[in-house]
């Protein structure tokens, strides 16, 4: 679950689904609104912060993931649905979720699978709980976990997404005044993955830092 960023999937191959839990659409006898969105080539699906999401690969699923607020997802703007005893403090959470970059690949895979299994355990408990209380408790725990990092996140947002939005506002103001001089600063950039095959929360990732 992301706390400040929307996430989008552009499906480029294979098939699968994304299962989601939200507070909206609360139904009698269930924890919250539970939905399954099928994913196939050509599907574009997205969801907002607070959406617990489980990505299911049903056959060579390949997607391009687009994240809002570049810099915040990379800084940990997501909390896995671990059982409550692992959500008590940042150190306890990190002990079962952090994958050391210098560890052998086999060890990285072991940690990735272990944390996936813990996340599924917590996810199934949230999905089967009666009423919204369990999901609300997870929201509280997740917010408390990331609170020590909010200052760093704010700085990243101010340098990145906020600065980009402000630049667009300034360009609109200048165009409104007949000033189009910023067009002379046009540039073209290209990028290759900074990391290939990284163990991510939803599978193996090729990571792009983004422009």
Counting DSSP H or I runs of 4 or more residues, the number of helices is 5
- State mean pLDDT (0 to 100 scale): 91
Biggest beta sheet attributes: 4 strands, antiparallel
Multimerization state:
single chain
Cα-to-Cα separation, first versus last residue:
24 Å
Helix content: 25-40%
Task: Tell me what the structure shows.
This protein is of the alpha+beta class. Helices cover 34% and strands 26% of the residues. It contains 5 helices and 6 strands, in the order ββββαααααββ. Strands 1, 2, 3 and 4 form a 4-stranded antiparallel beta sheet that branches. Strands 5-6 form a two-stranded antiparallel ribbon. A hairpin with a 2-residue loop joins strand 5 (195-200) and strand 6 (203-207). The longest helix is centred in the middle third of the chain and has 24 residues, at 105-128. Mean pLDDT is 91; it is low at 26-31.
């Amino acid at each position: 679950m992301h706390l400040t960023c929307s996430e989008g999937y552009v499906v480029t191959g294979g098939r699968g689904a994304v299962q989601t839990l939200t507070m909206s659409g609360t139904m009698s006898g269930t924890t919250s609104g539970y939905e399954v969105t099928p994913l196939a080539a050509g599907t574009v699906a997205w969801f907002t912060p607070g959406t617990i999401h489980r990505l299911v690969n049903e056959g060579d699923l390949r997607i391009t993931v687009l994240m809002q607020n570049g810099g915040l997802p990379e800084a940990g703007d997501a909390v896995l649905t671990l059982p409550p005893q692992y959500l008590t403090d940042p150190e306890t959470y990190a002990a079962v979720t952090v994958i050391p970059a210098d560890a052998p690949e086999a060890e990285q895979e072991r940690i990735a699978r272990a944390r996936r299994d813990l996340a599924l355990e917590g996810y199934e408990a949230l999905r089967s709980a009666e009423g919204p209380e369990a999901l609300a408790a997870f929201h509280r725990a997740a917010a408390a976990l990331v609170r020590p990092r909010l200052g760093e996140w704010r700085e990243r947002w101010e340098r990145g997404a906020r600065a980009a939005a402000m630049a667009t506002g300034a360009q609109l103001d200048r165009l409104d005044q007949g000033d189009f001089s910023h067009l002379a600063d046009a540039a073209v950039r290209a990028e290759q993955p900074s990391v290939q095959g990284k163990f991510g929360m939803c599978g193996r990732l090729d990571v792009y830092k983004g422009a």
